[in-house]
Amino acid sequence: MQVTLSQISLLFYLLSCSSIEARYTPDWASLDSRPLPEWYDEVKFGIFVHWGVFSVPAYGSEWFWWNWKGALELEYVLYMIKNYPPGFTYADFAPGFHAQFFDPEEWADIFEASGAKYVVLTSKHHEGFTNWGSPNSWNWNSVDNGPHRDLVADLGAAIRRRSLHYGLYSTLYEWFNPLYLSDKQSGFKTQQFVENKVMPELYNLVNRYKPDLIWSDGDWEAPDTYWNSTGFLAWLYNDSPVKDVVVTNDRWGVGCSCKHGGYYNCADKFTPEQLPNHKWEKCQSVDVRSWGYRRNMKLYDLMDLPTIIKDLVYVVALGGNYLLNVGPTAEGMIAPVFEERLRGIGAWLKVNGDAIYATKPWRVQTENATVPVWYTSKHSTVYAIFTSNPMQNTFMLLAPQTSYSTVVTLLGNPEPLKWAPLQTSGLIVLLPDLPFSPAKAWTLKLERVA
């Protein structure tokens, strides 16, 4: 059969239409239809790193500049009067951001030892200082000032050498940027800040560092139409060098949180009471009072290991990811107390990781059995994680439906445990002596249960 030129033209037209239809358009209905890349749901646990000029005063929180000059909080004003000379500005802190002891390989070793599968670094916080040589932030970046090195690149290379996923936090707004304040004064009818700062930096970050995750923040004062969020995300999903793997959160403008974007953060330390119907993440800091390092940190402000593990288990049982934050010092050190927590998590995950990584929420997420239990699942295997010692030899679970082929083991102990079914559903397990666990958490693995 002879094919005419008009038929060939029609074929190319139909193919081009199909290609166009497969692309994401810059509107939420289209963008929200994009499937979340599978890697993100499988990894479950990541490390958040808040690091910047705020690590130099290292007092109060990473919102130091705003608390001092924006909110005019007396505590911060008096701190500056007492410790710094008259006329000292926030910009004067930047040369003290030396990062002279920053060893990205050492950081990556600690993060890998924690059992985390992804790391998210603050490329820019609300102070506007960028941890790479942004061409749109002359002398207010880590290459022209402070460390005089590309922190985003250095850490990213070390992270990826360990086959961990690398994400970048980037704030949309900046507290005191004149362009932003001008747009804000106009009621966000102008977009000088977005066109000359926000979007050029986001495109630069993606093209230069190819992050697996974009953790957006600082969106809450203006709508997504001001930020041009949907236009950026359409490019990110269609044409960027990470279009097939990149994951995004939901902070893209007023009203977007918990509604639009990739996975949902909803709010800092988001803690749902029941299983959400959308993939979500809880970000939590080891120092419960600050995301950045602070010299006035107290031991009682820190989450201990059992609390962290309990939080991790709860989040994963409800289908979320757990992003745990540490704040390094201005010198580039991860405080030993933070390292101790991270290595403790890793030690627990070496034994119990099967109950965390690549799992799905089970039909029952939790029950109060012998002690409170959280469930996760993987195919026909169910994991029952308990975060307190039952202090007895028998352990009763009410939710699982067993069969003659059900096998019960304690993770870390290969020998099958003796068990017996209850009258309606559930089972009672004969526990061995539980091994010592600094995390105070253990896992029963139930194979071939309904």
UniProtKB/TrEMBL annotation:
Residues 1-22 form the signal peptide. Its EC number is 3.2.1.51. Coiled coil: none annotated. Pfam families: Alpha_L_fucos, Fucosidase_C. InterPro entries: FUC_metazoa-typ, Fucosidase_C, GH, Glyco_hydro_29, Glyco_hydro_29_CS, Glyco_hydro_29_N, Glyco_hydro_b. Keywords: Glycoprotein, Glycosidase, Hydrolase, Lipid metabolism, Lysosome, Signal. The keyword Signal applies. It is found in: Lysosome. PROSITE patterns: ALPHA_L_FUCOSIDASE. Residues 21-354 form the Glycoside hydrolase family 29 N-terminal domain. Residues 365-447 form the Alpha-L-fucosidase C-terminal domain. It catalyses: an alpha-L-fucoside + H2O = L-fucose + an alcohol; a neolactoside IV(2)-alpha-Fuc-nLc4Cer(d18:0) + H2O = a neolactoside nLc4Cer(d18:0) + L-fucose; a neolactoside IV(2)-alpha-Fuc-nLc4Cer(d18:1(4E)) + H2O = a neolactoside nLc4Cer(d18:1(4E)) + L-fucose. Alpha-L-fucosidase is responsible for hydrolyzing the alpha-1,6-linked fucose joined to the reducing-end N-acetylglucosamine of the carbohydrate moieties of glycoproteins. Homotetramer. PANTHER family: ALPHA-L-FUCOSIDASE, TISSUE ALPHA-L-FUCOSIDASE. Belongs to the glycosyl hydrolase 29 family. This is Alpha-L-fucosidase. It comes from Cirrhinus molitorella.
